[in-house]
Amino acid sequence: MPSRPQIAPTEDWHQIELLVRAPGQRTYELIRPVVLFGQSPAEPAAETGAAERTLYRHVARFNQLGMASFVSPPKVAKHQLLPAEVRQAILGAKREHPALNVRELTTICWARCGHRSSSHTVKRILAESPPPPRTHRRFPPYHAIADPTQRRLAIVRLHVEGWNATSIAAYLETSRQTVHATLKRWAEEEFAGMPDKSRAPHRPATKVTLRAMVTVKELQENPVLGEFRIYAALKWLGIFLSPRTCGRILALSRRLYGSPKPDPVSRDPKPMPFKAVRRHQYWSADIRYLDHGLGDFKVYPVTILDNYSRAVVASGLSRTQDLGTYLIVLFMAIQQHGAPEGLVTDDGSIFRAKQLGTVLDRLGVAKHEIGRRQAWQNYVEALFGVQRRMADWGFAHAGSWAELLVVHDLWVADYNYQDHYAHQDRPEDRRSPAAVLHRVCGKLFAPEELHRIFYSTRFGRVLDRAGYARFRRWRDYAERGLGGEPVAVWLYAEHLTLVCRDEPLARYRVTYEPDQRRLQTVTSEHLFETPHQSPQPPLWAWGADEWLPVLRLPAYAPRRPRTTSAVQPPLFALEVAGT
């Protein structure tokens, strides 16, 4: 054995690092001061440049394994680390059908065990331990299975396990067309498509089912609905009957149950002066009085309609018919659909207001008026007739203001998405007002620009934690559950309305100072029921004098006059003429 040159012992790490030959020896020299002499790993880490966490890990491994920790563990091939069930799935599938290729085996492995192995791993497993020859079959050939349901379920089970159509057909000794047809029936009908079906021609089942007749009877509780409205409502519910069939069912129900029949109204058609030839060419707007049984207060639906598509672009319920309410609905419509080319109304005082004309001029919308006492020229009048038939029965049976809002919102959705009589000649998917208006907007405005257009009527505020909005030296209550949310303050004439997310929260009546700008008095008129109420109920009931919806803020402190004690002397002496 050749002698090694003798070298003097040293503690210099740079010299030691040059002498070590194996990685384990280097690790030993790194942790030797820590293990033998009790030094902190930070000291040798600073001296050697090794990571302190690495020294901690080596010391812990040495304390656990001893000198064996300096020997690197033998490398294990990746395919030998696979779980036993994954290896068994690969070998079992290959033994059952040797024609399966590597790609199919990876898919089967993933479908059975949730582990997708690489093709190289599958090849190594098959090379090391080739599967023994098949001794039995899980499924006999396709035509050898007597039960037709079981033979088709065999195809489905193999498909779920990851087999493709070619391998399934070869294994069950059938055609690929049979496999594809079975899988198609499974995707469409599931277990109902597995038994054999009769090939004899069959008559189509009648569309007038018991469910259809019961639904018509329920809709007939509103006695003014005609056959077309019943047809549109049934189609919206997934029941497809013709209007004539609906009329026959209505007549049968009247004979059986004695339901009243609406009086027919015959009108001669007249040419419409504001008939639109494109979307958003004309919008029609109007207000009607609503019959209800909630009290002595009045309710008015304010509605704006697109003449071409007959879609309701915006609508809302109000207890007053004033310009402020109409501007709120107009703002909602323009914010969502853009501005139209023209707006058609009657000659009511609300629609002839100067402030409305100023807003329309800024929007670039032309103002049109129908002829005097010619309500038929306004498309909204026909819409109100549909509303009477579809929603007035629900309005009359509403028990609260919240139920009125629910009936109104349901009517807007039903009307916009059910088939309209004016679009019955269009394609099947373009017969509702919403489908005709879909994805077409008028002249769009940015939110900041739209706010500037309505600046004299609409003001932006943010509610405090108690649900109050500060406006012109007053605190007006809106809703405690919306603390910190932005709201819109609509002020016109003697009405002030707080609106959040296009939904009114509270209405106040105001009077003005002589300058017609500052508010002299603010009186609570109505706090609306909204779904934004606070989840925390009040701890006790407030008395009439304990909680005030309106609070007046103190006036600003008067400014102090500015006084100056120093006097600026003249910069130079002036000579007076004649002296």
Please give a handful of descriptors for the protein shown.
single chain; 579 residues; alpha+beta; 5 domains; five-stranded mixed sheet; five-stranded antiparallel sheet; 20 helices; 38% helix
Q: Could you characterize the architecture of this molecule?
A:
There is one protein chain. With 579 residues, this protein is of the alpha+beta class. It folds into five domains: 13-70; 84-193, no CATH class; 210-257; 282-437, 2-Layer Sandwich (Nucleotidyltransferase, domain 5); 457-532, no CATH class. Helix content is 38%, strand content 13%. The protein has a five-stranded mixed sheet, with helices on both faces. A five-stranded antiparallel sheet has the order 6-9-10-11-12, covered by helices on one side. The mean pLDDT is 83.
Secondary structure topology:
Elements: H1 13-19, H2 23-37, H3 42-48, H4 52-65, H5 84-96, H6 102-113, H7 119-128, H8 148-160, H9 165-172, H10 176-189, H11 210-219, H12 227-236, H13 243-257, E1 282-287, E2 300-306, E3 312-318, H14 323-337, E4 342-345, H15 354-363, E5 366-369, H16 379-390, H17 392-396, H18 401-417, H19 433-437, H20 447-453, E6 458-462, E7 468-471, E8 474-477, E9 486-492, E10 495-500, E11 503-512, E12 519-527, E13 550-552
Parallel strand pairs: 1-4, 4-5
Antiparallel strand pairs: 1-2, 2-3, 6-9, 7-8, 8-13, 9-10, 10-11, 11-12
